[in-house]
Amino acid sequence: MKFLPLFSFLLVALDVTPAATMQREISQYGITWTFDREYPVGQFVTGDWWVVGPVKVVGVRPLPGPVEAHSGEFRSRYGAAAVVDDTRMRNGSMIVLRPDKSQGFDSRLKNYNPAQSITFPLDLGVNRSLISTISNETLPVPVLHEVLMWTSEKQSALVLKSAAVLTCLAEEPPKDAFRPPYVGTEKPIFEASKLRWDRLPSLKPVGNVPSWEQFERYFARPWLDHQESWLLQHTGPSENQVNYGREFSRLTSMASLMLMLDVPRERKEKLLIGLVQLGIDLHGLAEAGRKWSADGGHWNGRKWPILFAGLMLDDPRLAKLPEGVVFSEDQQMYYGTGWCGQTALYQIVFHTGPKPPHEEKSPDTWDKVNKLSEGYRFTVSGGLPGTALAVQLMGAKALWNHDAFFDYYDRWMSTDDPYAAKRNGIPRPKEEGHSLDPFVDAMWAAYRDKVPVQPAGKDNLRWVWQEDGRQGGFVPNPKEASTSP
C-alpha cells in the first residue's frame, strides 16, 4: 500500500494550502467529478475537495448505473440476507440530508433505495455535500485493517471500494479548514490552527506502538456512518473505513492513545487531523438525528471521537452533544449487583429485539439468550478499554458523563480476580483481564493508575425496558445502586 510522504501532508496541515483555482474537473480516490464550466475549487486540510457554488455537476466517473456481471449472495452469520445478486446500480452517488436505514450507492445491499441514487447532470446547491463511490466488482475483498484481524476476518463482503466527498460552499473557506460534516445542510467550518495541542498528554511510549503510517491511512478518508442499519457491516467502502463497532472502537482507541505519546508534533499531526475530522462528521450526524443505540456489537466507538474533537478544537459548536443522542456505551454499562459481587455490569440491550440483563444471574442458570449476551459482552468489551483510558488521561470523565463505563473497564482489565471467592467454582472468563490489542494493554498497565484526579459524571443513568418489552429509556442509576462491596 502506498502512502503520501508525511512532509507533503504537513505543508497542507500547516496553513499553506494552495489558494483556490479554477477547474472544470477534479479527482480523488479514483473518483472524478466534471462540471459544466470552470468553478473555484480547493482542498480542505484533509485533502477533500470543496467548490464555490452553486455548481452543475454534469457527470462522475466511474459511471454509475447497471452492470452485467453477477457477484453472488452473502448472508449474515445468523442467516439474514445481506448482499443479493442485483445488477441495477454500481458506483452510486448520494446527497445525505439525514440518517436513514437505506442507501443509494449499490443495489446489491438489501437496503438499496433507487430514489436515493443521484442522477446526472446535478445542480449541486450551496451547503450540500455530494458523496460518490466506486463499487467492488467481486466479493469478498480484503478489509482496510486486515493486519489487525484474525484469518477468518481478513476479508469481507463489502460492496463499496472507495468514496469521496465534494462539498459545495458559498465562499472559499480558510486555508486550514477541516471539511464540514458530509450530512445535512449545516456546514460549520473548523480550523486546524485552532487545535489545542496543549490538551494532549505527553507520555513515554510503552509496548509495541502501532505503525504511524498505517494509522494515518486508516483515518485518511471519510468514514460513512449515516446508515442506521446493520447492513453497514457489508457496505464499506473497503478502502475507506472499518465497518463494525468492535474495530471502530479499537482503531479510535489506539489512535487516541498514540496521540498522547511523547513524540514530535509533526509525527502526530496527520493522525490528529484524521481523528478530529471523524469526530466532526459524527457530530454532524448526531445533529442530524443519528442515534447509535446498542445492537450487538455494531455501534460502539462513536461517542469518544465526538468528544475528542470538541476538546481539541475548543469550539462551543462541538462542546455539547445534541439533545436525544444515544450511544451504545451509555446503554450497555450500568451499576447493579452481579452474580458474584460485581458492581459495574454489561447488558446487551438489543439484538433482533430487546434483551434482558444477564450478569445478575449465575451462569449455570443462563438460557440461550443470556449466553448470546455473554458472547457479545466479549465482543464489545475487548475493543473499548483504550477509550476508557484515553478519556481519563485527558481529564474528560465528567464530559463523558457515565461513570459505570469506567468502573466496568476497571473490572474487565483487572489482572487479578477480586470476585474469585464467590464464583462457586465457575472460572473467570479467559477473555477478561486484557483488551484485543497489546498496545492498549501496555498503556493500561503503565498509565491507568496515573490518570489525573478529575470530577466524575453528574448524570449516571441506566437503560431499562418497559414491561411491554418494546419501549425503553434511561432512569437514574447512582453508583450506590450496586450493593456489593
Polypeptide structure, described:
The protein is α+β, with helices and mostly antiparallel strands and 485 residues long. It folds into two domains: 6-11 and 18-319, no CATH class; 328-481, no CATH class. It is 25% helix and 16% strand. Strands 1, 2, 3, 4, 7, 8, 9 and 12 form an eight-stranded mixed sheet that branches. It has a two-stranded antiparallel sheet with strand order 5-6. It has a two-stranded antiparallel sheet with strand order 10-11. Helix 1 (6-13) packs across helix 4 (265-287) and helix 3 (245-259) packs parallel to helix 9. The N and C termini lie far apart (52 Å).
Brief digest:
With 485 residues, the protein is α+β, with helices and mostly antiparallel strands. The chain contains twelve helices and 16 strands. It is globular and about 75 Å long.
Mean pLDDT: 95
**End-to-end separation:** 52 Å
Q: What is the string of SSEs from the N terminus onward?
A: HEEEEEEEEEEEEHHHHHHEEHHHHHEE
Number of strands: 16
Q: How many structural domains does the protein architecture include?
A: 2
Strand content: 15-25%
Helix content: 10-25%
Continuous helix count: 12
- Structural class call reads alpha+beta
Indicate the radius of gyration in whole angstroms.
Answer: 23 Å
The shape is globular
